[in-house]
Amino acid sequence: MSVLSNTTALLGKELRTEFRSRELLTTTIVFILIVLVLFSFTFDPTAGESRRFGPGLLWLAFLFAASLMLQPCFLRELNNDTLSALRLSVSDPFAIFLAKLTANTIFLLLTELLLLPIFAILYNIPIAAVFGQLVLVFFLGSLGVATAGTALSAISAQARMRELMLPLLLLPLLTPVLVASTEVTIGLLDRQPFVQWKGVGFLAVFDIVFLTALWIFGEYLLEE
Amino acid sequence: MISAAISPTSIRFDDIEKRYGGLYALRRVSLEIAAGECVVLAGRNGSGKTTLLRIAAQLVRPSAGKLTFPGAAGEARNGRSPNGSAATAYVAHATMVYDELTAEENLILFARLVGVAAPRQKVDALLAEVGLAARRDSLVRTFSRGMRQRMAIARALLREPSVLLLDEPATGLDVPATAWLAETLRRLRDAGCTMLMSLHGETEISSLATRGIRLDAGSVVADTQRGASFTSVLKFADAS
User: Phi first, then psi: what are they for B41, rounded to 5°?
Assistant: First the structure.
């Protein structure tokens, strides 16, 4: 069986499980919504302040929510030792990672797109004109978060103090993604929107590097 | 008679050691399990049976020593045989199925992963065989321990394995299910499948064994191939 067909079967499982329970999506959406609402009510930012600080707040909320979402990614597989069943069944362990990181990217992107209009209303920032570019940045940023996060989730799931381990490893590692995504988003939400191609390029390179590393070293991350 | 679907595969452990920190789970275990042999592993809790099975399944990398599958398409490399470990099936302590999927969804998922040609038909047949056809649409989390164990066995049998590893496979099974399992294992053994299983005491399943090995503190201390009797190998474990 090819990596692609294994990935498709596993992705179907990930989506089916999540859309049946909606545990991760609910947690993430509620968390980000609370952060956005609380920040808006507490600081009551002006339009200028929203343009300046809103993107950073948005991406910080996404990042913290992602660390909540990624925590159970591999922990769930330890419950009935299903990770061993997957390792025995797939032709290439990269399929396990590819399915999980694709599912995590979809969940993150879905959450972001659902909350973007609420952010625009609460912070009084028009987004319609740059919606397409925003989706591109959200996709690249979410893919970076999901790729690195899925790898670290596999490592932390087998460690002691696993609940603490994932955010401790994930947040520093994703600082460059946070900075680049925020800068590109600031440019897009400016009064005269512009695309910071340097930031977009950085996000694309980050994604490629981490995907390649996962492809090469993924098997070792799953070993007991 | 060896089925055309099962390629005879033997298992060879050469000086296998497994350490967890300073604790030895296995100490210099050297064994050759011939193709088609049905070997029972006995021993007290913590004697190394599960570790040996997980090393044979290539889920755990030994700290030292070498695992090979002579007769398979090639030698083990980086802990995995070049033809993949798909021809090896493993029934572990844990059920290795998803609680939040139905019985049918679980088996179809694993059938697709291992490349079963007609997954739906195979799953239908297996669900009927393990007596879970009526509960095919129920989530596995609603199943009893025995039903989960039947699911675990069905998952392992999705395609005829050339090596079957079983860790106390009769756990939770009632008398008819144990008899069904014994009959299924007998058919697989007769078809040429190499089997290595851990058991506690003499059961209907232990009567299938062509060889018994006793482990103690990570070492092989008795082997029927080296003169020990089945009764001594199994009774010792029973007493633990």
Answer: -100, 125
Number of separate domains in chain A? 1
DSSP codes, B182-213: HHHHHHHHHTT-EEEEE-SS--TTGGG-SEEE
For residue A217, the surrounding DSSP H or E stretch is helix A197-221
Tens digits of residue pLDDT in A144-162: 999 999 999 999 988 888 8
Cα(A6)–Cα(B116) distance, integer angstroms: 12
Q: What is the dihedral of CA A182, A187, A190, A194, to 10 degrees?
A: -160
* A-chain residue closest to B153, CA distance: A85
Q: Does the pLDDT of residue B83 top 80, yes or no?
A: no
> Residue B95: which of A6, A80, A89 has the nearest Cβ?
A80
Torsion of CA B128, B132, B138, B140, to 10 degrees: -120
The one-letter amino acid code at A153 reads S
Q: What is the pLDDT of residue B85?
A: 44
Range of the domain at A19: 3-221
- Please name which of A107, A110, A126, A115 lies closest in space to residue A47, comparing C-alpha atoms: A126
Looking at beta carbons, which residues of chain A come within 8 Å of B112? Answer: 1, 5-6, 9
Of A64, A61, A69, nearest in space to A185 by CA: A61
User: How far from chain centre, in Å, is Cα B220?
Assistant: 19
Selection from A152, A112, A132 nearest residue A200 by Cα:
A132
Any B CB within 8 A of A161 CB: no
ipTM reported for the complex surpasses 0.90: no
Q: Which residues contact B21 (CB under 8 A, 6 or more apart)?
A: none
Under-70 pLDDT residues of chain A: 1
Q: Which residues does chain A have within 8 Å of residue B93's beta carbon, measured at their own beta carbons?
A: 81
Alpha helix ranges (H) inside A80-174: 82-89, 94-122, 131-157, 162-173
CA distance A12 to chain B (A): 9
Sketch the domain layout of chain B as residue ranges: 11-87+162-238, 98-160
Contact, B153 vs B161, CB < 8 A? Answer: no
Distance (Å, rounded) from C-alpha B188 to C-alpha B169?
15
Token pair 């909320």 is at which residue?
Answer: A61
Give pLDDT, residue B205.
Answer: 86
The CATH code of the domain at B11-87+162-238 is 3.40.50.300
Place of tokens 């520093």: A172
**Candidates B113, B116, B166, partner chain A, best to mutate (most A CBs within 10 A):** B113
